[in-house]
Amino acid sequence: RGCRGEFKRRLSTMSSNDHFTKQEQDNSALTEPLIQSTDALEVPVDVEAVVASSNVINVTVDQELLQIDENEWAHGEVQDFSCRDVFFAILFLLQVVVVLYFSTVGIASAESLVPANSSNDDSQTYDLSKVTFFLLSLAASVIGISSMTMLLLLGPLAQMMIQVSLVMSPVTNFLASVMCLVVGQVVLAGFLFVVSLIGLCYAVGVWRRIPFASANVTTAMAALKENKGLFALNFFVVFTATGWLLLWGFAIAQVTMQEKKWIYECHIDTGDDTFSQEDNCQVSTRGKIILFAFLLSLYWTSQVIKNCFHTTVAGVIGTWWFTPEADRPKGFCNTTIYNSWLRSTIYSFGSICLGSLLVAVLQVLQVIVSLARSDDRNSNGANSILWCLLQCLVDILERVMEYINQWAFVYVGLYGYDYCTAGKNVYQLFKARGWSVIINDQLVSRSLGFLQFWIGVVSGAIGVLLGLVFLMDPVTGGFLGFILGLVLSNILFSVVNSAVDTVVVCFAESPSTLRLNHPAEISQRLFDTW
After folding, report:
1. Which residues are CB-contacts of 527 (< 8 A; sequence separation ≥ 6)?
2. Residue 274 confidence class, pLDDT cut points 50, 70, 90
3. N or C: which end of the chain has fewer CB within 10 A?
């Protein structure tokens, strides 16, 4: 009887394993080459396997014995501490010095840039103390709402939020098409109806991928809970970008208003170099080059600041992934964040400048093509189709380049690669994972954008109430509340987005490391949903 019971138990285990292997084969398009079959698991003989109601095998075994064979795909290697792509870092710093020089001169002569009669006594004025209390109360409310949203909706309710954001788009388009049909806009109603059908088909097609996307969000949030200082660092980065924008504004004002002979070519009757409003002035070729150079500086520096933070988040999440819990630094401002920021702004700074320059050049080209198309439209419009196609092409190239940078800088933050090597690893990632990476990123970005919009709406409602209390102007309060809600929630959620991208790459690089260094409930959900 004992032998018969043992035989039944082993037979049940073998049937369960056969069912699990069949389930993996059905999803082979997703699981190659990331996770191998169950034969690659090194499981001792005395392991007890039971099948849960979800047909997923729960294996009770020491984490050190349960590993996945990762020898069938290449892994990243941590690079030595040395500066990479140094030329582009030097070039970037030179243009920063130039802008700082002109901004310093512009600030010194700021009084001459402001019109003498700029004050308006008839304009509405507010008490400074009330405005300060209004802004502080509104900012605190927005941050509180965003924090509660991240803890609740991006934690246990992450899957529900992705599902709701996926369904809302076709539902909204369908309701809009019905409203257009009611008011007699048949063509627009038909277009919106087709768009809603496309959104519905997309939702049905990617619905089965939602659990894995939500598991990535949950894993990223677990990593961010140990490194909350990233949120404070992101606010510092935003303030830095805002300060740079102000300095760039002073610099461009100095060049265009005080150094007009550099920009304009005028037909002046007088013998001096002075300019007046009656002069027939046009922007010279040299002036166009200078203005586009300043525009390139603005885009380039903004991209560098943003990508430095994105690379820092990748380094922090990578350290959390590959380091055992006992060896990981703890605390709000731990050494992990400091070391990752140091690597991004020193050793990998040249690589970040190179990737950011490529995007900035495409952004400037987008502006040039847009201006040329506008001039063509104002003339005879003979080449309007050509300019439209060219603008579409540049826009696509810019979006593709930004998307490649999004993943390339994850590899830069994880391993310290130069930009070209990181780009090759991005190619290998997409080659191995295919559309699953794009769809997962799109699902997460869609849900975060959906949350940001509703945080803006709630913040606008709070702004109406605070505007009545402090400013006696609910319209202004509501508008400022909506804008501030969008901006602050975007700052906070950009940390989550970067963390999710890093989790995707780390899971493709070394899934078994997550099992070894973290509790089973974190890794098991990723494996089960994948």
Report:
1. 35, 511, 515
2. low
3. N
